[in-house]
Amino acid sequence: MDQTYAMPVTGDSMEPTLPNGSHVFVDTSHNYPSPPDLYAINYGHGLMVKRVELLPDDKLRVISDNDRYSDFEFPLQDVDVFGRVVASFKRHG
């Protein structure tokens, strides 16, 4: 069974790493947020791509690459990790 899915990136919170309109491929077999990397997650606002870091106290730091957005910390149990981003592409034109 294939466990990699494509999804679009909307918004500018992950710029410059993932500009609006990019697409990512997400490996859903890797749904534990370690090591720190880009993951597709849902913490109550729908599925989105964010950089995440697992903290020692079972919290998850959610990081936007765009400095205009603040980082957040959530209890790991409050975040659904859909999978790890394994590739991305941006359409030109």
What does this structure look like?
The protein has 93 residues and is mainly beta. It has a single domain (4-89), classed as Ribbon (Umud Fragment, subunit A), CATH 2.10.109.10. It contains no helices and seven strands. It has strands at 4-8, 23-27, 37-42, 48-54, 59-63, 72-75, 80-89. Strands 1-2-7-3-4-5-6 form a seven-stranded antiparallel β-sheet, with no helix packed on it. A hairpin with an 8-residue loop joins strand 5 (59-63) and strand 6. The protein starts with a strand and ends with a strand. The mean pLDDT is 94.
Name a few traits of the molecule.
Umud Fragment, subunit A; 7-stranded antiparallel β-sheet; 93 residues
Q: How many beta-strand segments?
A: 7
The number of distinct helices, counting runs of at least 4 residues, comes to 0
Largest sheet: 7 strands, antiparallel
Helix share, percent: under 10%
SSE class: mainly beta
Compact overview of the structure:
0% of the residues lie in helices and 45% in strands. The protein is built from no helices and seven strands.
Write the layout of secondary structure elements.
Elements lengths: L3 E5 L14 E5 L9 E6 L5 E7 L4 E5 L8 E4 L4 E10 L4
